[in-house]
Design goal:
The structure is a single chain. This protein is α+β, with helices and mostly antiparallel strands. The protein has one domain. It is built from 4 helices and 8 strands. Strands 1, 2, 3, 5, 6 and 8 form a 6-stranded antiparallel β-sheet that branches. It has a two-stranded antiparallel sheet with strand order 4-7. Helix 2 packs across helix 3 and helix 2 packs parallel to helix 4. It is elongated. The protein starts with a strand and ends in a 10-residue tail after the last helix. Bound molecules: zinc ion. The site of zinc ion has 5 residues, from helix 2. Zinc ion (ZN) binds next to helix 2.
Length: 227
């Protein structure tokens, strides 16, 4: 059994800019260690002041000059797989795929770190990303997702790339939907300034997360465990 870790930079969203196609790409290997250090898993707890490591921009953010904070969140996955060789081809099968959300700390900034309401608004962004991660995990458990977990190629490298592409393609619609939700959240809450709307959105986000947690709990584990 081998272990292969492949973080991806997926959700480089910025409020107020027109939506773009999701940019699903892999990080070059030399950046993986740095990316790991800069990213913190959702499961490690709510956002805290120390997660905002980037310096706030000196110029006002275009389209959103009063923006007080920015939280960059992202998808990541790791997998484990087995290899077999038949007919001079490498056949890979993922035994587990672990999907998780992160906050990218060295790209997140906060002009008012002591403002708890602002921090809660930013937590909403982290929760939106986590909701998509949980939805993707559920989908990965469906029988029709099983095709994702197998790939083959003439070389090990090619087979690995196909397996990785399978997962990236699977995640793309979740990434696109998540970008829309971040934009919608900022629009309806006025970046958290509308207290009533902010409260409503946060309640909805918490309900979604709870419901998905329950759905995932009835399934064996949070990773994909084929046959
Ligand atoms: Zn926001």
């Amino acid at each position: 059994m081998n272990h292969f870790v492949w973080p991806i930079a997926l959700l480089a969203w910025w409020p107020e800019l027109p939506p773009e196609p999701p940019r699903v790409r892999s990080l070059p290997s030399h950046r993986q260690a740095a990316a790991k250090q800069a990213a913190r898993r959702y499961a490690e707890g709510p956002l805290r002041v120390t997660d905002f490591r980037a310096a706030p921009p000196t110029e006002p953010v275009p389209g959103s000059p009063s923006l007080q904070a920015f939280t960059q969140t992202d998808f990541r996955f790791t997998w484990k797989y087995t290899i077999s060789r038949r007919n001079r081809r490498f056949h890979l099968k993922a035994t587990t795929i672990d999907l998780y959300g992160v906050v990218v700390r060295d790209r997140s900034w906060n002009r008012a770190p002591d403002n708890q309401r602002l921090l809660d608004h930013e937590q909403g962004h982290f929760d939106i990303t986590e909701t998509a991660i949980r939805q993707a995990r559920l989908k990965l458990q469906e029988p029709m997702s099983r095709r994702l977990i197998r790939a083959s190629g003439n070389t090990l490298k090619r087979a690995l790339r196909r397996l990785e592409e399978n997962v990236l393609q699977f995640l793309e619609p979740f990434a696109a939907e998540t970008r829309k939700r971040h934009t919608h959240y900022d629009r309806v809450t006025g970046h958290g300034k509308n207290s009533a709307a902010q409260h409503r959105e946060r309640m909805r986000q918490k309900n979604d997360l709870d419901r998905l947690a329950k759905q995932l709990r009835v399934l064996p584990g949070t990773t994909h465990s084929p046959e």
